Amino acid sequence: MRKRTSAIILFFTVFCVVILSGCFQAAQEPTFDLIIKDGLVYDGTTDKPRVTDIGIKGDKISAIGKFSCQATKIIDARGFIVTPGFIDVHSRTDFILKGKGIWRFMAYIKPAINGNHNYLYQGVTSIITGNDGNGYTNTAKWLNWVDSLKFGVNVYHLAPVGAICDELFSGKEPQPLDENQRHTLKKRVLKEMEDCAIGLSFDLSRNPDQLLDKEALTDIAGSINHYGGVVSMILRNSTGALDSAGNPAFVNSLKEVTEISRRAQTPLEISCLRLKTPWKNLNYEQISSIIRDARQAGIDVTADQTPYDYGFDILTSFLPPEYVANYEIKKEYTTAEGKNTVIKAVNRLFTTTAPENFSIISYPANKSYEGKNIRQIATFERKSTAQCYWEMASNGSPPIVAVPDSSGHFAKLVMRSPIVFTASEGISYVKDSAIPHPSYWGAFARKIRKYALEDKIVNLNDAIRSMTALPAEKFKLAGRGKITVGSFADIAIINIDTFRDKASFLHPEQYAEGVEYLIVNGILSIDRGKITGKKGGKALKRI
To answer: Would you identify the CATH topology of the domain 86-309+406-531?
Structure first.
C-alpha cells in the first residue's frame, strides 16, 4: 500500500513539474510577449466566431486556445471582437507623397502621416499603393522610403502603368504607343515586378492608359503572369450611357477587362467598382452575369468598392478625355473655338449630372467658392453654369469637387458579393493640409457600422472577410488576413458597440472610433483607444 502511495505521489510530482515547466515557469521568462484573452474572434474564415485566447510571440501568432500562461502584456478582450487587421487594397498614399514639395517634407516630421493614424484608427494594418495607374513609378525606391520613414502600416505596391508611360515618354501629348514604345514599357514593367511589385495598375478612363487598346493591354498584362501578379484596372467607362448601338458603356467596359484577363491569363482586380450616372439604362443582373460567367470560365476576377455614394475628383476629370491632358484642358481647346467645343460638352454633362451636384471642395484660386455648388456660383457671378465650369476648369489649377455620381442601389447589391473587397481610395493624412474625402478617415468603420450592423446589407462576418482574408488571398499577401497559428500578428480588437466613422463631407478630419487595441506585426500601435507611437509597419514585397 505504501509503495502504491509513493508511486502516486511520484506521478503527481512529475506531472506538476511538466506543467510548471510549460506555463508557470514563464513567471521568470514569459511564454508569450502578448496574450489577448477572451475576445470574440472572427478569424477571417467562414467559421463562426468563437471566444478564445491568442498568444503572440515576436511578430507572429504562436498559439490559439484557452491557456493560463504568463505574458509580458495581457489584454482583456472580454466584450470586444477580435479580427485580423484590415487590408486596404486601394490606397493612394504614395501618390500624395511622391512629389518634392510640402507633403514630402511633412511625411518626415508628421507622425500622423508616417504613422498612418487615419488608417490605424479604422483597424487597417496593411495597404496596397500604386493604384489608378498613378503614383510611385519606382517600386524599390518607394518601398525603401516606406522603411526609412518607419510606417505604421504594412505597404505593398502595384506598378502604375500610366505614370510609367508619362515618365518614359514625357514631353509629348498622350498618344497610342508604337511597337518600340510598347516594348520599352514592357521592359520597364518587368523590372518593377523584379523589384517585387505585386502587380500592375491601369486607369482606362484617363490618358495615357485610355489610349491603350485591348491588344496592347493584353500584351502588357500577360507579360507579368509568370510572376503571379495581379492587374488592377479602372473601367474605361463606368456610366450607363448608351453607345451608338444602344449598349451601356459600363457593360462594354466590363466585357473588355474580363476579356483582357482571359487572354492574358492574369488575375484581374476591377478597381473603384461603381455605376456612375446615368444608371437607368442597365440593371445589376446585366453586370453580375458578366462577372459570374467570367469566373465560371476560370477567370480570377474580383473588385473593390468604397462605401460612399459621393466621389471627389478634379473638375476636369468629368470632361471627355480628348479635351484633357494631365488634368488640364489642352491648349488647343483654350481658344475661342475650342472654348465653345468644351462648353457644349459641359452642357451635355449637365444633362446627366446637374450643376448643383458639383460642390467645390478645394479651390485655392478662389477660396470663396469652397462649400458652394456650381449653380450657386453661377447665380452669384451672374453667368451661365457652363461658363463658370469652363472658367474654373481652364485656369491651370482646377478645383476638387464632390459629386453624387454613383448609384447607391447598385453599390448595396455589389457589396453583398463575396468577390468585392472594401477600399478607402484614400491617403495617409494630416489635419488641415487640404480637404480630404471622408473615406480617408472612415471607410472601414462605415462599412461595418452602416452596412453590416445598421442596414444589414451584409452580415458582419462577410464584411470582415471583405477586408481581411479575401483580399489577402487575391493579392497573395502571405501570412496576412487570418488569425491562425503562424500568421503575422496583425490584429484589431474592436468595441463593436462604439465602432463607427465620424468623418463627413463638411467635417471630414475626424478619426473613426471603437478600435480599442491594434497590433501590427506584434507591435501594439493602439492601446485603450489611443495611438501609442510605436510603429510596426513594414514595406512588403511580392513573394
So the answer is: TIM Barrel (3.20.20)
